[in-house]
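Could someone model flavin mononucleotide with this protein?
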Amino acid sequence: MTPALPEVSADLFRQAMRRPANAVAVVATGAPGARFGVTLTAVCSLSDNPPSVLACLYRESAALEPLRRNGTFSVNFLAAGQSDLASVFAGRGGLKGEARFAPDAWTTLATGAPVLRGAVAAFDCHLDREIDSPTHAVLFGRVAALVMAEPPQVGAEPLTYSFGGFGSFVPLAG
Ligand SMILES: Cc1cc2nc3c(=O)[nH]c(=O)nc-3n(C[C@H](O)[C@H](O)[C@H](O)COP(=O)(O)O)c2cc1C
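Reply:
Sure, complex below.
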């Protein structure tokens, strides 16, 4: 007989999802004075033709309506040295909206969305399409421009998140 499997409760699901290491990104939208940004791990490449990405944003996020209105956003994959920024954009410390954006840390590329200096890689996107789940908006971004850090740079290894904590990607020896 097959052993009984535990019911997949929300708690069990979250426990399992703590295990994989994920890249950490800040998704940002808006122009100076009216910028919004959120830390996300639910973000990935979709296709190289056309260059496009996916981001899953909680539907109650303060960034969602502005992002829809602007029709543009950036996906900024953080470096290990930027874990403080990941915390700020996750709302720790209570900062909201424009207050999360440190002066001089951001620039723009093609669309005008805020692009983080020193990100491992930053993708400047037009919002192509959105699919809504009950809890999240799945955003399809068409990449208009990008910048990437030139490895190797100290502190520029990709930031990761696993077991509820930040780490960094280290290649296996050999
Ligand atoms: C490591 C990490 C990963 C996160 N990943 C996501 C995610 O993929 N999608 C999401 O909607 N929120 C995610 N969050 C939560 C948001 O960052 C958090 O709710 C943030 O406060 C939302 O900003 P807002 O309050 O301006 O909407 C994550 C938080 C952390 C710390």
